[in-house]
Every structure is written in C-alpha cells, then in structure tokens.
User: Fold this.
Amino acid sequence: MPGRIDGQVAVITGGASGIGEGTARRFVAEGAKVVIADMQVDAGQALAAELGAAARFHETNVTSEEDVAGAVDLAVAEFGQLDVMFNNAGIVGVVGPIAETPTEAWDNTISILLRGVFLGTKHAARVMMPRNSGSIISTSSTAGILGGLGPHGYTAAKHGVIGLTKSVANELAQYQIRVNAISPGNTVTTMTAGVSGNADDLENASKYIASGSPLGYAGFPEDIANAALYLASEESRYMSGHTMVVDAGQTASGMKPNRFHNGKSAQFHEAGRVT
Assistant:
C-alpha cells in the first residue's frame, strides 16, 4: 500500500535531531525521499545511513545561502525534483532582558531563525515554480502566536516566520505552491530539555512539559511530524497561508509568561542546536 507522500522528495533543515529527525523518519516511512540538511554532521550522516537509499545528508548552516541552495540542488540532483521544503532548523537564541541584550547575539538569533526560513523558501520556490507544484512548510512556535512564551529574539523571529508564510503564500498561489507554517508548543527535544538545564535529560523534560499541558501529557517530535506530513500531502491541497498550532490547546487556554526575560545577562546558544 503506497504511503501518504509516496514518491515525493523533501528537504528538511535541522533534520538530524528533534522535530526534524522525527519528520525525516515519518516522511521516509510514508514513501518520501529526504535530504537531511543540518550542521550536526555525525548525527546527520548516521540518520541518513540508517534510513538508507531514501535519504541523503547535506551539511548545512541555514544562514549560508550557498549551503541552503546546495541542499535544494542535492535533492534535485539525487532524486530528480523537490516537492516539500521543511524549514525547521532553529535555536533558542539570545536570552535575557531587552535592555541587556547584545546586538550581535540578537542579529545571530534572527539570522538563524528568520533568514534561514527566507533562504529555504527562496530556493525551494526557485525549483518549484517551473513545475507549478510544491509545499513549503516552516516551523514557527507558540511564541509566534503570543508574547511572553519565549525570549525576545526568538519571539520576534517566530512572528516573522508567520508573516513571511502569509506573504509568500499569496505570491506563490499562482504556481500551485502551498506555503504553511506549524507552531509547536513545548515539545520534548534536546533543545527544550536544554532550557531546563540538561539537554540529555529528555525524561525530566517530558515530565516538565506534561505538567504544563492542558491535555496532561507532553508533545513529542512525532506529533509535529504528523502535522508536517499532513501539510506535505495532498490531504491539505486546499490549505495555504495557514499556521497550524500544535500545542495541546495551550495558546487557547492561556499560558504563564516564561522566565527567559528574567536573567541578569543575555546568552547566545550556538547555531548547531536545532528544534
């Protein structure tokens, strides 16, 4: 029985871990071929080897136009086309009060979280437009829906992802290219675990996230992968310019502001960390 995206080709940035890894696995299970675009070389190569002939790895810093274009070009060269672009790579970024936020760290955060989405969208459109088909998906966040749910830079960038999604969806509709976003709530990944102090302690992160979930349980990468699969498939053929919120109803029921703004000094998390 064919998969839901049988024969499609996808590029997934941040595809070596977290939500990206979960999506790569789900896409391949549903019949797709994937290019895993990530800075984490060892993890990315290992995942591609595990997934076999349906996967390739491309070392990618999403702030580099050459790298992002190369990932798209690899998909076309190896698999003949590009049907799905999942702009997913991300970091927590600069943390701290606005009056103490270093400008360089702010710029780095915005570059990874928003420039990276712009570049992925730009180069996906480049190869999708001549074919008059495609699905571009970008990871925003509940911090892109409400203020107070993430650091200032992260929040600004994730709001920007939603704005860019709407704007590009308007332009690319004439080419039958759908452009949508996903806004995950707290999801159990090494990135969210790292916020609480230990990136390797996924069990504790799961308990912590579950304690704040209106549904009483935590979200995992496969939950976001399910949303990405729907947006990649023909099941969502009449949806564009939409942001799908996958957060157990947290933004609907209200959330308490987080602690990202309360520190005495700002921090910058290195670009290799992905959602």
